[in-house]
Amino acid sequence: MRSQIMRIVDANCNRISEGLRFLEDISRFIFNDQALSQQIRNVRHTIARNIGILGNNPISERDADGDVGATFDPSQQLQDMPSLITANAKRIEEGLRIIEELAKLPELNVFLRSADFQQLRFNVYTIERNLIDKLLRKTTAQKIRGLYAIIDTSVTGTRDICDIASSMIRGGVKVIQLRDKHSTKASLFAIAQQLKQLCQQSGILFIVNDYLDIALAVAADGIQIGQDDLPISAVRNTIPVGMIIGCSVYSIAQAQKAQTGGADYIGVGAIFATPTKSDATIIGLEGLQQIRSTVAIPIVAIGGINTQNIASVMATGVDAAAVISALFTDNDIEKNARTLIARAEANP
Known about the structure:
By secondary structure, the protein is of the alpha/beta class. The protein has helices spanning 2-30, 34-52, 57-60, 81-102, 114-141, 153-156, 161-171, 185-202, 212-217, 232-236, 252-261, 284-292, 310-314, 333-344; strands at 146-152, 175-179, 205-209, 222-225, 244-249, 265-268, 299-302, 320-323. Strand 4, helix 10 (232-236) and strand 5 form a beta-alpha-beta unit. Helix 2 (34-52) runs antiparallel to helix 5.
């Protein structure tokens, strides 16, 4: 029996090691996340130390050629990265659970502590969640491109919000953010629900400005917060896996802090004077370029952007340009959106 137990330990150690190496490489090379990479490495080293107590006993019992379970089913191949992360995390978790149970047997409990492997399994659960969260957020944030439309109820007046959003979508916007400083939460929730459904059907992102409770209630793609709102870390601990956080910044220092703090993108402004925020500090194109050269996460430029200057804004290397008033210069929002996009793609 002892020989067979060592074979099981050896097989599961191999599964665990291979899975951890995969997750570590994802964290290191795709996310460039030093802290998470180190966390995975610590798990790997801890397992190696614990199993090392058994010496060469597990590998001495290895019989790969005689393993009746060593078959490969090509139908089980997984193609997308979330599935690969999940599959490898499950291999690790299942392997740890098997060793955790085996460590209760008299043949092993003098060498291994079952509780140690239980704790390692719980650590991997957290690592799996963090990796999936990072991947989904990265995929979502990459969709922040081109024209980023802000529906500000102080500008829309009595016009139907969904009609406005539909015109924006037909015009080619990639993101719609809802900004409302005046409505009741009940009416804002109803509006946000409709916009979320419309954006989801159209394959574009829906962001809620400021109100975390509304963003959570309607399962928005993201939340935009300001310098005076909750810290990014507090928001991150509240929102579900995959929801992105945008942070409004007005200086290089704030941009760097937002990136370090875990923002998925930043809104930078004001680039020019803007009628929707008369007291805004103007950083200009030079300030925008300086911030672009400082951070790697997506940047949305905002403030006074219109058909005359949007090309110059995009030429700084930002990912998107946020517009409000420029979409409402006349009653043809769809045409205005198309014109802005065409100008954005032209040489400044």
